[in-house]
Amino acid sequence: MARSSKIQAAAIAGVIGASLLFLSAGAGPAQRSAGAAPGPIDPQRVQDQDTMTWADYHPIPGRNWADPALKPARGFRLAVVGIDFPGQPFVITLPKGSDPFGNPQIEPIPREQVPQFYADFWMKPGEVNHGQTINGYWMEQSRGRFGITEVQSFGPYRMPKPIWAYGLNEFGQNDQTPDGSHANGRMERDCDEIWTAAVGQDMRKDFDAVLRLYASYDETGVWQEFGEMKFASKEDIPAAWGNPNPAKPRWVPTRYVPWTSWLAGSQQWGLSSMRQGENSGTITHELGHFAFSLPDLNNNPYVKPYRRVAAGTWDMMDRGCFNGPGGPHMRWVVPPMQGAFMPAGLMVRNRLENKFIGEADVLSLGRAVLAKYGIAVAEVTARAVDPLPGTYAGIVVRFDGDKPGDLTPSDDPATNPLSAGTPNYNFYTLEVVQRIGYDSFTPDNGVLIAKNKDSLRGANGGPNAFNSYIWVIDAHPEDIGAVDYVKPDGEKVMRTVADYRQLNDALFHAGLDSGSAFEWEDTPNRLHFYVIDLRRDKDGILVYTLAVRSLDGAGPQQRGVTLARPAGRSNLKLKTETAPVAFLLTNTGGPTDEIAGSHFGSDVYRLSVSVEGRGWTAHLLNALTAVKAGSSTEATVYLSRGPGASKSATVTLSATSESDPSRSATTTVTVSR
User: Fold this and answer.
1) CB 363 within 8 A of CB 392
2) In this structure, are 533 and 577 located in the same domain?
3) Would 331 be classed as within a structural domain?
4) Which of 304, 309, 441, 609 keeps 20 to 30 A from 322, CA to CA?
5) Considering the entire predicted model, what is its pTM?
6) What SS3 state is found at 216?
């Protein structure tokens, strides 16, 4: 994926991720021969949301959290109230593809069946929803602790005013009504009065939430696609998309940019009051507000000065709620089978907040304990499943110590769009994302590192500020250089640096040549994070070995390392053009009694290799390894010789302790053909 250098990686200090490529004797860069060594152990494979289809969904092995037979520990009761308007029937009742937006996508549903159709669409596995439900999302995230246990549909009811009387009450649209009135009403009041009159009592208290499902669209899913993406300018909007009153402009202002078509802008903007149009895929997100009081994390990606997104594609309370097949520009589809229909999972910060995981599920550390006891090493399982035995759901590293709090220097978000804003974060989290279950529509597998706040609320300061209680560390902070959309005249519009998809390539990966970084150093907060290695269990579940080190203390352990030549020999004969050569690395240090057997009982070693000999190359797949005190592991070097290579070469392998760089080992071996 092409990337520009407009935003320098240095804007986020501390990305190390040095690419330790294989070395070759002689002048000029070496070229690896085909098949000289296995490929990267953990290649970054970023898939853009726009290219995702339902074929990208991968079920969790042995689990179907959408199964209605599963009963959650905490149930949630939802009312679905269907309403339409004079002149605006339910889109789903129209002939297939017949409305101006190109909907519906399926054969029409009779009006009297619409509320139950949508209740079933959101709650019952079926063909139209590809077996996925809101209940399935929350059951998967909570591991059965929370789910939708009761859904009752009401209506349909006809509202007293046209859709534009409710939809033109936001973002300076109020005076763009066809009849010259001033739109200032919210549809909830009229809806609830009609509903109460129809059933003879106020039913709202009988449910945990009320979803007012209204005919037509959420403006949030159509303002761009049927505004600046469809029309070259506001003057080019045809009458069919304009105000029915020809004396009025055919455009209206909208939330993020100066204009959209009147027809798109006259729709209601879906908000956390749980009023949602027929194209809405963000009901799961809104339940995050209602059921758990989680606030929004999203920014404004279109207004200058640009401000980088907080969590983006990786959390459902940010734009990860747009992750479904087809990406954010497919959120106009009715019924909402694409776009926002399959949101991302929740990050460790929100899972802890919702009590979906507990303190025992994470490895809790802090700057003080790391400085006292040294580097900590642990395995972390992909967040879509429970931690495998001996592993964790994540790692938490708090900003405690002699100088508690976030020590990051303040900068100016007006000049640095990558700024995390006010440095008032309280802890780091590390977790693993794998594209299974509802995380199927995240763009990559890998390790997710983030700074977090104890408080769920609080703007990040500066111009164009927004709430950011989670801040993902981007392994690729440079501009991703991807097209957002193509204008009607063919001009390509690039994604702004504040677009949530800039974080598509944010994950860290193990090993060399992955296309990403394998470590992150936060110098002000005195922490260094490592992605050491990965493995998969028998079901293909990802588990990463991660490490965290303090820059202020290595612990009381004696550190040491030795490297033994292959089979103890100083000379090897290479019978083929390529071959692996395994050295034995031993951690000769020893933990104190206080930390024996704990996560502080290992050390991390940095490996490097060189070769002297014309036409020979030596390559490592991983620059890091973690070894328990008193234990050994293989460090494999992949050797190859090219045409015209010298008869022999000398390979030198070195290993250096990250805890104590004065402790290192180097060994050499001569290879010949």
Assistant:
1) yes
2) no
3) no
4) 304
5) 0.93
6) coil
